[in-house]
Amino acid sequence: MTTAIHRGPAVDELGPQGVRGICFSCDPMTGMDVAEETARRVGEDATWFGVGILASDEELALRSADFCRRHGLRALFHPLDLDVCGTDPLDDGLLRAIGRRADELDSPWLNIDLAMWVRRGESLLESLVPMPLVDAAVDVAVDRIKHAQDVIGRPLTIENAPYPFVVGDQDILTLMTRIAEGADCMMTIDVGHLYGLRVQSGRDTVLPSDDDIAWERVVEAHMSGTFIRRFEGGVRLVDDKHDWPVSDEVWELADALLPRAPHLRSVMAEAEGMTADELTDSVRRFARRADHWWSAS
Ligand SMILES: [Fe+2]
């Protein structure tokens, strides 16, 4: 068990000072009409806009940056080919291109799921391989994250990936704390992913070990809908569904965990596939609950 040192980066000094609020995301290839309509309707209920693009997507980065400027939003960059838990060697040319996209978006940090994103040069996107929940994963991830941060020139925040299957039996938040402290990076809690993993693993959704997590390093949280399949023998499989509303169980887990994070800056309503009406409702619902999540700050 990690007894957290929690020194880490001065997260309060990252990015736009004092800015915190609700983030929403859309597919920047197909969803920008929805984003435009939603941004107009929600006004100041949204603060951030999540941008998930590849290192080569310069045009999408510039278009997203323009969208943010016109609506008074700040961009948060989620690269789709930053492979911090894969086996391909990291490509410095690709990392520098990711750094240019981050500059264009002026994203204060880059969010990345702890997963294999690329396999032998092929982007895995919809088929991410989540980091195995074993001790040996920590050093591998630490080395890759340190190198990526050095070349990109901006800090990373590591996110707990979705787990359609589970290898290993360690707690994801405990492993994330060890990685974040080893690499001196920040953390993103995807509450839906965490709920799914813990339910699938037959664990309580809040664990005693959550008291020892480096909450000071948590700057982002994500939430979306969840879909639970139940199989014979009690086996459950939990998927997150970005076009579904957040379930009560995930709201409750967010209420239990997020107030522990004193430097939480953004809570994202993940929404790829939603209509403008659905996304507007979602962002407003997040904004109404947000005061509870910032309460520790
Ligand atoms: Fe997420």
From TrEMBL:
<dbReference type="Pfam" id="PF05114">
    <property type="entry name" value="MbnB_TglH_ChrH"/>
</dbReference>
<dbReference type="InterPro" id="IPR036237">
    <property type="entry name" value="Xyl_isomerase-like_sf"/>
</dbReference>
<dbReference type="InterPro" id="IPR007801">
    <property type="entry name" value="MbnB/TglH/ChrH"/>
</dbReference>
<protein>
    <submittedName>
        <fullName>DUF692 family multinuclear iron-containing protein</fullName>
    </submittedName>
</protein>
